[in-house]
Amino acid sequence: MKSLANIGKRLKQLVAQPAQPSDATELLTLGEEALEHWVRAKGKEPTEDLREGYRLLALHRQGADKDPSFNACRETCRELVYHYNLLTMEPGHPESAQRARMMPLVANHLFLFISGKLESQELGDFCCASKPLREKVDETLPVQ
Amino acid sequence: MSDKKAKYQEVAYYPGCALEGSGSAYNTSTKALGKTLGLKIKEVENWNCCGAMEVKNIDPKLQTYLSSRVMSITANKMNMDTVMVPCNGCYHNLKKAEYDLANDDETVEVVDRLSKKAGHETYEAGQVETIHSLDWVKETIGEEGLRERVKKSLDGIKIANYYGCMYTRPRHIFPEKDKGPGSESTSKPHFMDDLLEAAGAENVEFPLKTACCGGAHTLSDSDTSTLLVTNILQAAEAAGAEVIATECPTCHSGLEMHQIRAEKTLGIKTNVKIIYFTQLLGMALGLKPKAVGLHENISDSFEYVKKKGLA
Predict the structure, then answer these.
(1) Which of B20, B69, B71, B214 has its Cβ near the most Cβ atoms within 10 Å?
(2) Where are the domains of chain A?
(3) Closest chain A residue to B58 measured between Cα atoms?
């Protein structure tokens, strides 16, 4: 599994370079690897299961377990799978070039969301919570 | 006239805190749009903060109480059965309060205790229907009604419709969505797309329409928010959009502020304009840019709308 920094670096390259429909498989894998980082950070072993035929969706579900704010990236995951399907099932479609342009941006959003959420882990959930921070502050307060 | 069309002709209006501050243009344009369409709104009397994120972080049930108070005033003091909310955060919180009060006895008990302490009637689930400003325009006027009223078509404007992550999440608090044709979709929302298309705009395929903008961390973790917003802006431009239409004051301010910040800190310049859907519809109906608060936006899109014949 790539480090989070390397996932980000590779995605940056893929966003910047001319889009290729053949990048679809790598982009899906990069999405899975970003999710694996999140699942591991939560102390779980990343699943090998499939959901609706995709490990990416199973990993997202695992990552969102008892953490509903993680569902803020649910549709981004689904869009990633959707673009993967479009590009692999209809590689010769007239819109393939445009779809190939969009897929790295979708994968990059998933990566940015997860890395931001991981970075702020000490401050609690990325989405609107500062619970662990508050708990630390509460620890220092005298007991009432 | 359908039930909803009749019911939503006059609604209670809950602007929420953001619309009195950074989202002032959304407040201005929502009111102006309603007036132009002949719809009536009555602002919720003596309203309070919905509890947004700050109170929710300290005590979720206190947030539920705060949201319930807004609905209690609507039902018990104003004798109204519908409250219209333009802000996604407030909309989400009122819907969540409604859900919790209908399904959790402990929440009912806490809200009842706090309501009695505060000296007002306790809100009971089912007294009020909370709707978003998108529902309001869609159900009362609809696409057909808009087509008939358009004075300055949005023809030639390519739009990426951005709904943000709170408008449809979590699914279970929006029981009216995902009910097939005519209802809103939680996975691929389309009400804003439908309305703007009816006003002449061309909607682009935009895969990040419900993606997170990092709004909650705009101030506490600006770098992450800037990266998320920049990716949204770049995706919108890659999709061919000239405008991102918004329907949430937090998302809107975040997109505008981080567009500027991305240029300064990352050297990434994007040109896509960020405009509230109420501003776009208002201008399509013949309102002047100032009447819909375009000058109140952080980014300057006046030259753009002038070029498109909307000024």
Answers:
(1) B214
(2) 4-140
(3) A131
